[in-house]
Amino acid sequence: MPQAKAKLAVIGGTGLYDIEGLKDVQEVNPDTPFGKPSDTITVGKLGGLGIAFLPRHGKGHRISPTEVPSRANIYALKSLGVEYIISSNSCGSFKEDIKPGHLLVPDQIIDRTQKRVNTFFGEGIVAHIQFADPFCPVLSQIVYQCALEAGATVHKGGTFIAMEGPAFSTRAESRLYKAWGADIIGMTVLPEARLAREAEICYASIACITDYDSWHETNETVTINAIMTTMRNNIDFAKKTIRLAAGRLPEKRVCDCASALGPALVTDLSLISAEQKKKLDLLIGKYIKRG
pTM for this one? Predict the structure, then answer.
């Protein structure tokens, strides 16, 4: 069987474990220099487009947010030829009008994670990736438009607080983030978005709103049961959005994501060890050859 390839990948979060309608399905288990990805990657065709599906927390939801092998996940998707990633993220809301059951396509992140490796580089290679706009604007616009067409109540833009977890916020933390002007909070958009930028993959999020975190005076304190109930309703809209978006991807990328790593590499390429060149050939190989 020929090597599976995909242009679009879906990283499924809580409750999103598959995509119906895939044809010519293969299951692949790629090795990476950063270990194994979260689970088997399902690759198939959706309307003629190669698409890969990876459950972030593994089948059966057995990997905590802190333990997600994000470097292995992104590297594995890159090895399959992926150019676009749509990520599903369950989130709490800091705004009255961003209600449980809504979707939001964020455009900014505040990083409050603490224990996660957030770069492919180091160990003799320095890369300062440009991350002012952490989500691909082209892909995010496609996702937003497709969510509207899917019939979802969807908000365009917003700031995502990426927290460490696995515990939910204290009331004081929740009120602080709300005071900062943040819109939503979740545990999984980082380091995925940053690693995707280093890998020159376009990345957008479908944030599925499940609760009001713990700032809200009149709503119940957030619980996993409440989240799962709302998430089941959100998932149908997320899947419809993804299926529509698969048919709208540009043939050729014109966004900055596609060439983000070149100007970020500041290390003299001649000084990079042969071991590192081999390990990271998928990411830096084209720049080594040009140098």
Answer: 0.94
Structure tokens at 16: 């999103």
Whether the Cβ atoms of residue 82 and residue 201 lie closer than 8 Å to each other: yes
Write the burial class of residue 290 (CB in 10 Å: 0-12 exposed, 13-18 middle, 19+ buried): exposed
Is 213 labeled as catalytic in the residue annotation?
yes
Burial class (CB in 10 A: 0-12, 13-18, 19+), 170: exposed
Residue of 121, 270, 34 whose CA lies nearest to 287: 270
Residue 1 lies inside a defined structural domain of this protein: no
**CA–CA gap between residue 181 and residue 176 (Å, rounded):** 9
Residue type, 279: K
Tokens of 275: 């071991």
Residue bearing tokens 């900014």: 108
What digits encode the pLDDT tens for the residues 152-166?
999 999 999 999 999
Residue 71 sits at φ, ψ, to 5 deg, of: -65, -45
Distance, CA of 186 to CA of 161 (rounded, Å): 6
Active-site residue among 213, 236, 256, 268?
A: 213
Residues 118 and 190: beta-carbon distance below 8 Å: yes
Catalytic position from the list 111, 211, 236, 268: 211
pLDDT in tens, 251-267: 999 999 999 999 999 99
Contacts of 59 (CB under 8 A, 6+ apart): 17, 39, 40
| Residues 211, 208: Cα–Cα separation, whole Å | 9
Q: Catalytic: 211?
A: yes
For the domain that residue 81 is a member of, what is the CATH number? 3.40.50.1580
Residue 144: give the domain boundaries. 8-290
